[in-house]
Amino acid sequence: RMMAAVMNAVLLQASLEKIGVETRVQTALMMQEVAEPYIRRRAIRHLEKGRVVIFGGTGAGTGNPLFTTDTAAALRASEINADVVLKGVIGDDEYGCPPRSNGSAPFEHISFRELAARGTSKMDMTAITCCEENNIPVVIFNMLEPGNMSRAICGDQVGTLVDQSGRIT
């Protein structure tokens, strides 16, 4: 699993660099040939220089096998003062959020508290809690839908926004 996560990070890096986006991969695992070690200040410096930083490896590069990638991503997001966490999921089933009781369209906006109260999500609750405590919104979206990744990165409405206010629409 650790190697697969790093391989995915390197693949994402190659894809982004192919379209001209300067990118760095950081991981807690020592793999100097393919990634630099995670150092918070270095990650922030890369971001200040306009680079994309991808955290790869078990637990998004924490090196802790007890952390899910979601929780580690939330932890790294809090460490670098990220504006948002993007959670790409496979499929369109409510973008990883619990279904509405009346079976209508997926949530576009829900609060952390409401999501926790409903009890199910494709993002683990430790990650959701970390994002809530650090006031980092989460966007859960179908990453297989063409264009969704670009729209999510650009801040367009895609999937479900989970934040403090959570007006359900």
UniProtKB/TrEMBL annotation:
Keywords: Pyrimidine biosynthesis. It is an enzyme of class 2 (transferase). Pathway: Pyrimidine metabolism; CTP biosynthesis via de novo pathway; UDP from UMP (UMPK route): step 1/1. Residues 3-142 form the Aspartate/glutamate/uridylate kinase domain. It comes from the Eukaryota. Transmembrane segments: none annotated. InterPro entries: AceGlu_kinase-like_sf, Asp/Glu/Uridylate_kinase. One of its GO terms (molecular function) is UMP kinase activity. Pfam families: AA_kinase (PF00696). One of its GO terms (biological process) is UDP biosynthetic process. Its EC number is 2.7.4.22. PANTHER family: UMP KINASE, URIDYLATE KINASE. Belongs to the UMP kinase family. This is UMP kinase. It comes from Aegilops tauschii subsp. strangulata. The lineage of its organism: Eukaryota, Viridiplantae, Streptophyta, Embryophyta, Tracheophyta.
